[in-house]
Description:
Protein name (chains A, B): Dihydrofolate reductase family protein
Order of helices and strands of chain A: EEHHHEHEEEHEHEEEE
Oligomer: homodimer
CATH architecture of chain A: 3-Layer(aba) Sandwich
CATH class of chain A: Alpha Beta
InterPro entries (chains A, B): DHFR-like_dom_sf (IPR024072), RibDG_C (IPR002734), Riboflavin_Biosynth_HTPR (IPR050765)
Number of strands of chain A: 11
Helix content of chain A: 10-25%
CATH topology of chain A: Dihydrofolate Reductase, subunit A
Strand content of chain A: 25-35%
Radius of gyration of chain A: 16 Å
Largest sheet of chain A: 9 strands, mixed
Distance between the termini of chain A: 13 Å
Amino acid sequence: xxxxxxxxxxxxxxxxxxxxxxxxxxxxxxxxxxxxxxxxxxxxxxxxxxxxxxxxxxxxxxxxxxxxxxxxxxxxxxxxxxxxxxxxxxxxxxxxxxxxxxxxxxxxxxxxxxxxxxxxxxxxxxxxxxxxxxxxxxxxxxxxxxxxxxxxxxxxxxxxxxxxxxxxxxxxxxxxxxxxxxxxxxxxxxxxxxxxxxxxxxxxxxxxxxxxx
Amino acid sequence: xxxxxxxxxxxxxxxxxxxxxxxxxxxxxxxxxxxxxxxxxxxxxxxxxxxxxxxxxxxxxxxxxxxxxxxxxxxxxxxxxxxxxxxxxxxxxxxxxxxxxxxxxxxxxxxxxxxxxxxxxxxxxxxxxxxxxxxxxxxxxxxxxxxxxxxxxxxxxxxxxxxxxxxxxxxxxxxxxxxxxxxxxxxxxxxxxxxxxxxxxxxxxxxxxxxxx
Lengths: 213, 213
């Protein structure tokens, strides 16, 4: 029933580097931000469908495993689904190929009208134009008692944080200073005071910080 | 010979909370930012001159000990010395009473003209109106081969970082999200790439991150 958010950020709080384009949809330096995550065994299996058994199995991978556990529905923004990069392509089905790593209902917040898209592995994208609160109510219905994840991007994440709707926030802080892009935490005055905070270091140098209420 | 910087920042990178006034010179929420440091045995002894032997002796205190080791001269801004709060008081001698915890030469960057101030414990404040580079050359002369510390505040720290003058940066990141005030890292594009980065967790929850080149 909890609402969860997981993001990769830099030491200077950047969750979404600048320099995004259709060719480079995640922005410059995105690779530096997510290197630890892409290196995990779980990312390779779940997202890349790499059956070789390779990848890291330490602290970073433990968080990657948890990322996929207990989620009944996800909410993401239009940009994360790819509608900003490909707004005029009615056949766009997301970045993830024919086996999107969700396996369940995903609400995409957009003002564009799109018919739902279903995949054989259970992933079903549904396009809605609502407030964060309304999207969350719909996601809880779809999740059937399991947790709801706010998938991103950072603008969507910030709107749910600002509305006080997120119960557990996990940020994987890469020890890099990007100096450009959209920051996660701005203007959330004394945001932590309603949460218990714990931290853990990975061998990769990444600092995993979890805020739970 | 190294140039060192130590700062306390929040998870959202704030080094100097807003809300500063003569009555509250460090700004709102400053106490939350430095609670771990003020709790250390070393801070109590060196800054508060508390001879009771109390205070924490863990990771936070180890960094507090290192903070005072090997420094031959310090550079600080006018605000940190107190000239913004008390610009018209020619007798202002800093916030630290008659035993300032420096014990050596301190350059205060200011456009105000002030005569040097000397204390019995060896602390000597010298007021200069120069560029970061010129101040650093003067500080190296005064340090006699020992390290130079950039004391702060955050504006001074950022000007030395932007000029590429700092060899070792230690930030004690408190797991709090202030959401107001002046951030340390903004606009330092890919700043970390010239440094090796290491991190350590304290029992207090503080994350000590050190960048060394």
